[in-house]
Amino acid sequence: MVLRIVVGLGLTAVALAVAGHRLWWLKRLALSGQPAPDRIEAARAHLGRDLETQATEVIGQRKLLQWSVPGAAHAATFWGFIVLLLTIIEAYGDLFSRTFAIPGIGHWPAIGFIEDLFAVGVLAGIITFTVIRLRNNPHKEGRRSRFFGSHTGAAWVVLGMIFLVIATLLLYRGAQINTGVFPYAHGAFASEIVGHWLHPLGYGVNSVLEVVFILAQIGVIMAFAVIVVYSKHLHIALAPVNILFSRRPNALGALEPMRSNGKVLDFEEADPDTDVFGLGKIEDFTWKGLLDMATCTECGRCQSQCPAWATGKPLSPKQVILDLRDHAFAKAPYLLAASDEEREKLPEAVKQEAERPLVGKDGGVIDPDVIWSCTNCGACVEECPVDIEHIDHIDGMRRYQVLIESAFPVEAAGMLKNLENKGDPWGMGQARRADWMTELDFEVPVADGKIDPDVEYLFWVGCAGALEDRARKTTKAIATLLHTAGVSFAVLGPAETCTGDPARRIGNEFVFSMLAQQNIETLNEAAPKTIVASCPHCFNTISREYPQLGGNYEVIHHTQLLARLVEQGKLTPTERIEEKLTYHDPCFLGRHNRVFTPPREILEAVPGVKAEEMHRCKERGFCCGAGGARMWMEERIGKRINTERIEEALALDPDTISTACPYCLVMLGDAVNEKKAKGEAKETVEVVDVAQLLARSVTPAVAPAESGPGTAEG
Ligand code: SF4
Ligand code: SF4
């Protein structure tokens, strides 16, 4: 008895000391990052909501269960381990008394049954994981496997450890049944089966096996605890913490404002010596960023949904997080050293790691092509079961490259210059913003200063909507529909300027804040009741990002307003459009802002239209390739993203591909034209905004002119 107590508790003490030391080291490493007081305040302020989030995300496994088979396997394993905490208590109790039972409930047959049920559930879970891993073997499947780039060896070790936890559990319980000390008279069906197998060995052998497997159970669990904190399975401990401090409702929509030393950076007061301008080294990440890295489970769900990865680019959101984590761990001794003298004494390899640029072609932690491949589509953030904030990290690195290193794709320089000097990415100038109105046969009121309180909507046209030939057709369709519905609206005309979205997404926070402040001033003066934006990027920037600068407005997307007008009977689509159609979800409308239904409602209301969904739609929609300022960069690596998307659309043999974003309109339009030129798409296929379709059905007699004099090229 004494020996087993000494061995059991000795193993536990050693394992807890090793694991505790590692957790302490991880905490010190995380705290070597930038402060993030906003995360602590938000977690405190929304404790009730956060508990609910923990309940759905961690206990409920919400995101994991969206992937039905692996999700169910993970849930079975996770819930199993929670229930099996009871068996761990029993194992420790058995060290002190062979007849130990948990006080109060320890003899209930239902508890014995539940413990065994979840033990079997965990076994089923790990068998499923084994099959999934064998079928998704990265050595055979290459980039198509979501485990490509993950540390698969460690994953197999952990699966083996979980098996040993369950095996030793059932073995000691089976032996206990045969020695007559098992606390449950019946109900523990799996233990009874194992007991039946061990029964022929007799009482003496079973007595020995009982002790051996109780100690083995404790030993395996303690070894598992150590492996967990030294491997990707650290997420078992960190996932709830990471989710607690993640952005709410998620890290989609707005980008994080640029922070330095825990405060939002004010460019006018910034000090180049003490302030941090984006992410230029690993310690520029906040502790939450470092926590993200340590929490990654390497599941590859983000990678499997990334359009850049799917089209052969070097960007995998998972690999970005893993490369940052590996670098943070390798540089840790340098970061945690107490003095320069201590740093000097570090091994050469650590010093070299500390010298590595975070982003750089030769020896950088992250290749520049990786960060510039991101479209900010949000698929990674949407999928990540532990709420890692990939876009903020990628765009944070872009900020440093643009603001400090002036290193970004050269072709985007013109766009930034045009934004600064002319207020639009094409450099066409403010005056041209009114051109589209001259192509209508009714007058569009242009606000001059404060908007009349009787005017219901300020129509925010956007640069593309005003200046790009194809997008201008959408603008005219929206204006015509509003006019037909008798909705009072005004536009800013030449007083509108770019929202700053392309500047912010490429990393030029300085130009973004300049444009945003200018627009906020104009909007505050105009004081619109509601802004209706036709571009999802404008919609996202004004509604989600301007509040960071003090601009708070009610903003809706044109599809939301048009769907409402159809529902209210103010717009009645009557003309039949006998077409087969598919709808492409713009990332910044759908995934980032959850507007999935209104565009579909509009299409449903048009008589004759037969809509069919693409395989990748709604939350899992596939990007057109233009977001994240990619519209202004060449796509030199891999397959073009818009080509990949249009192929998916064309596979449905549609007459029309509809969307609700000027960027998507241009990207998909270009891709379909290429396909037509190659004879791979029928000549009649067209890409249109849902507003154009609705206008054709509602007001065929007054449909807006479909062409205009100016074409801006992206
Ligand atoms: S935002 Fe989109 S393109 Fe960028 S890493 Fe995530 S999934 Fe890939
Ligand atoms: S970042 Fe999230 S989704 Fe991607 S591999 Fe890590 S845990 Fe999985």
Structure write-up:
The protein is mostly helical and 714 residues long. Helices cover 54% and strands 4% of the residues. It has 32 helices and ten strands. The strands form three sheets. Strands 4-3-5-6 form a four-stranded parallel β-sheet, with helices on both faces. A hairpin with a 2-residue loop joins strand 1 and strand 2 (263-264). Helix 7 (109-135) runs antiparallel to helix 9 (152-179). The longest helix is centred in the N-terminal third of the chain and has 30 residues, at 2-31. The termini are far apart. Residues 707-714 have low confidence and may be disordered. Residues 305-308, 315, 317, 374-380, 390-391 line the site of one iron/sulfur cluster. Residues 296-302, 317-318, 321, 383-386, 388 line the site of one iron/sulfur cluster (SF4).
Briefly say what this structure is:
With 714 residues, this protein is mainly α.
Structural class: mainly alpha
Strand content range: under 5%
Largest β sheet strand count, sense and barrel closure? 4 strands, parallel
Rough outline: globular
What share of residues is helical?
Answer: 40-55%
Bound molecules: iron/sulfur cluster
Could you list the spans in which at least 5 consecutive residues all have pLDDT below 50? Answer: 707-714
Distance between the termini: 78 Å
Kindly provide the radius of gyration, computed on alpha-carbon positions and rounded to a whole number of angstroms.
Answer: 30 Å
On the 0 to 100 scale, the average pLDDT is 93
- Give the number of DSSP strands: 10
Number of helices: 32
- Spatially, the strands of the biggest sheet line up as 4-3-5-6
